[in-house]
Amino acid sequence: MKFEAVTIKDIARALGLSTSTVSRALRDSYEISQETKKLVLDYAQKINYHPNPIALSLKERRSRSIGMIVCEIANSYFSQVINGAESIAYNRGYNVIIGQSRESFEREMLNLQYLTSRSIDGLIISVSAETKDFTYFKELSQKGMPIVFFDRIVDNVETHKVIVDNYKGAYDATVHLIRNGYRNIATLSNAPVLSIARDRLAGYKAALQDNGLEVKEELIRHCVHGGMLLDEVETAMKELLALTNKPDAMLAGADKLTTGCLRILKAKGLKVPDDMALVGFSNTDLTELLDPPLSVIRQPAFEMGEVATDFLLQLIESKRPVTEFETRVLSTELIVRESSRPVLNKARALV
Amino acid sequence: MKFEAVTIKDIARALGLSTSTVSRALRDSYEISQETKKLVLDYAQKINYHPNPIALSLKERRSRSIGMIVCEIANSYFSQVINGAESIAYNRGYNVIIGQSRESFEREMLNLQYLTSRSIDGLIISVSAETKDFTYFKELSQKGMPIVFFDRIVDNVETHKVIVDNYKGAYDATVHLIRNGYRNIATLSNAPVLSIARDRLAGYKAALQDNGLEVKEELIRHCVHGGMLLDEVETAMKELLALTNKPDAMLAGADKLTTGCLRILKAKGLKVPDDMALVGFSNTDLTELLDPPLSVIRQPAFEMGEVATDFLLQLIESKRPVTEFETRVLSTELIVRESSRPVLNKARALV
DNA sequence: TTTTTTTACGCAATCGTTCCCGGTATCGTT
DNA sequence: AACGATACCGGGAACGATTGCGTAAAAAAA
Lengths: 351, 351
Known about the structure:
The structure is a homodimer.
Chain A lengths: L7 H8 L3 H8 L7 H13 L6 H8 L4 E6 L5 H16 L3 E6 L4 H13 L4 E4 L9 H8 L4 E4 L10 E4 L1 H14 L5 E5 L5 H16 L9 E3 L7 H12 L7 E4 L2 H13 L9 E5 L13 E4 L2 H17 L9 E4 L2 E3 L8 H7 L1
Parallel strand pairs in A: 1-2, 1-3, 3-4, 4-5, 5-11, 6-7, 6-8, 8-9, 9-10
Antiparallel strand pairs in A: 10-12
Chain B binds a DNA duplex (30 and 30 nucleotides) through helix 2 and helix 4.
């Protein structure tokens, strides 16, 4: 089964012209007479001619498609980012090829090789939790492949990046918990190598210290798969709940960690926020319908996709090598709901 | 900025061979000596040669990419389908280009034209709620473009299709509500033109009739945007709640309708299931964490993506025109939770 | 009328790869 | 020694489109 398209040759043959003339007529070249142009244009319209993008790609040595690697599509945050990226790319005549790393370095590399072998013009990526070795990105970048990092960025590759103010997001959320009377705040963090985990953890620690609270290492748990496996969340929670001085609140550092945490607490029969308050990074629009409605730190995911794609297209379409790079930092939004309700007796003491 | 790749010519030049020989050596042709093959292969490995897929596409007249159009990516059901599709496509050397119709016919056509102009080898699609005119699909199919429909299928285009047993899904859920003592069951349905809406509605009606209950048209509400706009859900719910004989249970026919319904009920201060029970089609993994935990009809979304892609690749890679088509019907799963808890006094009367 | 300029078009190379034809050695066979 | 068979390799067209260059005819200038 073949889907046969009309080519410039068909037009040339039908009209008794050369392919060059047809090509030029279609591109409205000055060296083609008005009548010929009209003839060609009308006929092209009639037989529904569309230039073959593959032939163009071969000629122009650009595919007009960009690669995008995320952990997983079925994640509200990433699907919103993809959404934003698609919207920009589509308008500029590019298409987005999506790959999923599923937090695995191996799958990330596989996707990367696949995408580059499909001759993409550029790459947008949020690295996997397992990725410790960034030399491949560096090499790729040095060979001239335009790359934009978002969300989970890497420090030692110089290029455009898009993130949110993870430090402030975590800081504000932690302060919010403290203000509401919580004193023993634990955190569920991503793999320590990830930029987002580092920044969020730093914000968490700073908020504690700025409010005269001690940073206790036993209250900091890392889930190296970012909550993709419920097991690791369960283990972390078990450890926290086994402490003699149990935490009274949780700060969860990722979408799956937030919902995973709630899931485990429910399974253990603990009440949120009475037994344990919860605030987490999340972009699902269902958080307000949860039991209890969840306080969340929300990221402008769609906008991140837009900015990342805009950055990438700037790099791709730049005539000269770009040497000045920007790291765009967007703001998070703290949405306060039931899951971090004030502890009355303690809250008063602080205010 | 250009990302320069090595070509077969580079190898030929470096080794003092012709491009034909190099090409043949790489493809392990019998008419190339072992030594030459080894020479070429080793060198290709060394300089990290990868065949240019664009040149191959031009030659073979196939792009090895397939188009996929869904309503929106940021929807748990569709993102799971995409996931399944990607997994199969990736393994068979294809990539998936995704387009979003956002329930708009115009955007659907735009995406379709874009995808076909990007010379895709085939198309997987779940049509938008606005799509009433299927001639374009028919034409495309007749011109030889392999198409597979899933979820929202169209009747008058003969090709492979993948659906779930929507009739049975809705039937079972409705029977479940009846068994649990609910007697005045309303339903929130998709646009009436959609196959899924028709089938689910039919299942709902049959369940009522088979259990001696009357089908009341005033209890059937259609949301033409499938719940994408909360407004339409709110309007529908308002109308239902304004009835003298208010419904005591709801069957929601789509992901966004289910959560939208819960959202509205909560906003109106109604208790689920005491004031109104709720069962709905949904594929989010958060439904059990909602307040109350939601009874849902779950679709094997990932598998649907797999099957659809497998079907499509069969069509694409078939030597002869395919004339026998299959409509694969997968099973839904009814997951019973709190939101449809038995009404004690009534439930007993029935059992 | 002759020369120059302009107009309008065709030829052929190019992008990277495959593949149909050839062509030339090197054998073995008679 | 002559022939055919086999093994091995290169030339060049093709895929669809663009584009530099060449050139005929028409128009303008001399």
